[in-house]
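Why predict the complex rather than its parts? Because the way molecules touch one another can change local conformation, and only a joint prediction can capture that. The input here totals 484 residues.
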Amino acid sequence: MKNHINEAYEATDTLNDESSAKKRKIVVPGEIIATGEDYLPSEGARREKENVLANRFGLAEESGRVVKVIAITGAFIPRKNNVIIGRVTQVTFNGWIIDIDSAYQAFLPIDESPRFISKSEMNQFLDIGDVIVAKIWSINARGIDLSLKGKGLGKLEKGFVFRIIPNRVPRVIGREGSMITLIKEKAGCNITVGQNGWIWVSGPSSDEEIKARKIIEFIADKVHVSGLTELVEEWFEKNK
Amino acid sequence: MKKISKMPTKEKETFKRPDGRKLAEIRKMYAKVGIIPNADGSAIFAFGDTVAIAAVYGPRQLHPQHMQDPATGILRVNYDLLSFSVYERKKPGPNRRSQEISKVTEWALSPVLDLKEFPNTVIDVQVYILQADAGTRTAGINAASLALAHAGIPMRSLVCSVSVGKLDKNLVVDLNKEEEDYEEGEGATDFPVAKIANTEKYTLLQLDGKIQPETVKKVLDLADKACDEIYEVQKKALKEVVEQ
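Output of the joint prediction:
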């Protein structure tokens, strides 16, 4: 249980401030980020003659010659190996259809459950409305396939789930999971953060759970603040 | 002699707009991003007493399925006046006018969007007019453009929109309702324009009234200048959402 979210931060981006040795600024679509032939436009940027322009709203980051724009708002875009939290919406003959709060439905095949499940007892294992932590195993033209095989994956019981803006997930997790470990410790709760912005919290009593939810929402509100760890510690001092 | 020949131009200069604005002066603008927490992106944009809000949802699954496009995502705009936005209560629900404006807003915005990353999906944009004092479609386009950017959707640039009008023989920017109903001389002409910011590309040109072909160039020049101002307001609103 301790390393519940291990996989969750594998694929995270670099929104946490601790690594902000690189130059960052907020850009709007079409704004010039850098001028010069040396720069290479990466994700969210494009070249027009000698200028590198933003292709979307977000934080522009120059690391060496590479320029990219990190999204800070918007819907969840699934990527392979993301750990997500989803809800079962349908039980079919060979698996479950899961709502993962993205544009595409996800499918969890029966073969990808952690142990053998016969087709007759499928809805005893997972029924409509159940909440699971799963990993995106593949993304193809037909949809998203999930897997429950792996550490920390499976059905969630007790506790509750709430949602934050998916792009803020890396901040909540922190560098190498530093932030989420701190919150777990201070709030005394079990927390799982899905890359789709759904967060599951379970603690000894609802007081702790609500406290954990409040601090996570507090962090998700702050997009561009540095020294977040101190702020969080301060918050816990105030709200003992 | 000279004085006499100057007379008409001077008269033109001193043309008084009903609300005392200069000819090329836009009404006071207000823009704010992130006003609807449940939407993926949202914005409010106001030209004086014309107030538009826009909310963006998606990319999300598109129903009915036959509208899905496996090559790209699509944009779907719904524009409407709220029933209390005008003096006489507007019956809620779509009508001929709102359907037309929804469509032209869609066309005004889609050239800047790149939705190839999201096949089979839709991006829903809801544009509602809280208060109408002419220029609702232009305020709606400005708000929708902000909301789309706020939703993190890949787009080449922002879209700015303003209406240019002709009151008798005077070209003015950003008509209000009183000016739209101007009846002296040649009457009023309303010419809404939308363009891609920092380019010479226009995505909306409509005309209600009469205008001489040679005047259209002047109209576009005025619109260009006004759009630069609007772009700055939009840019500021987007940047403010991050700095708290």
